[in-house]
Amino acid sequence: xxxxxxxxxxxxxxxxxxxxxxxxxxxxxxxxxxxxxxxxxxxxxxxxxxxxxxxxxxxxxxxxxxxxxxxxxxxxxxxxxxxxxxxxxxxxxxxxxxxxxxxxxxxxxxxxxxxxxxxxxxxxxxxxxxxxxxxxxxxxxxxxxxxxxxxxxxxxxxxxxxxxxxxxxxxxxxxxxxxxxxxxxxxxxxxxxxxxxxxxxxxxxxxxxxxxxxxxxxxxxxxxxxxxxxxxxxxxxxxxxxxxxxxxxxxxxxxxxxxxxxxxxxxxxxxxxxxxxxxxxxxxxxxxxxxx
Length: 292
Ligand code: SF4
What we know:
The chain is α/β, with parallel strands linked by helices and 292 residues long.
């Protein structure tokens, strides 16, 4: 296939197992982990967990990524749609309260094939960097129940340094508008699980509180009737990041500056605690026990 599934718009050829585009992925699905995951936001994980399906590769590849083994180095193994459908059935049997597709954009056609074979009876969550084209999201309209996009950077310069994508905000803001157009206001079931909607994630970066505040202001202005935000403070320098300023965790003062602003804006959502600011929470990928 000649690929333009993501905003990198490589127009690159992808054969079955390898590709010549930015992501270097082939057409067949490559997966690094399929397992229950308890540490997402409460409306995603619930009490029993989300069935987390980690796809190999990434179309953004942030320099500080905590999952560099899969996002930068494409660790994983090939799966056919029938094999993934079997894994989704096993996740259903384990009582997962949602199923999350994580950085799955390069495999949208194969995921649609998979869901023709088996669609889990729980909300399907699209966990994404936010760097998505509106065209690819439209292929998911009516398929995905909950969008869980990051909203990472406002400044083109910060986005250029962190992920080589100075157009990040322009692209991600248009993508989130499309997600909200598709799913509308958040709806929850009696157990507090999000059945439909959009939950925006923002990770505060060291030295970048001005960027965080600009993003929260955009959410408030663009969605005055409310889209929930998950504010995360657990930045850990990972993946051998060498960019000056990104080699430390955020300070309490930085966290409170952004959190106070979110409170002042009256945004709905969550604050994730520093207890998860540890590499202990980074899952092990691509071992036999990584797949249900
Ligand atoms: S999915 Fe991969 S090959 Fe396709 S446009 Fe994006 S980076 Fe390029």
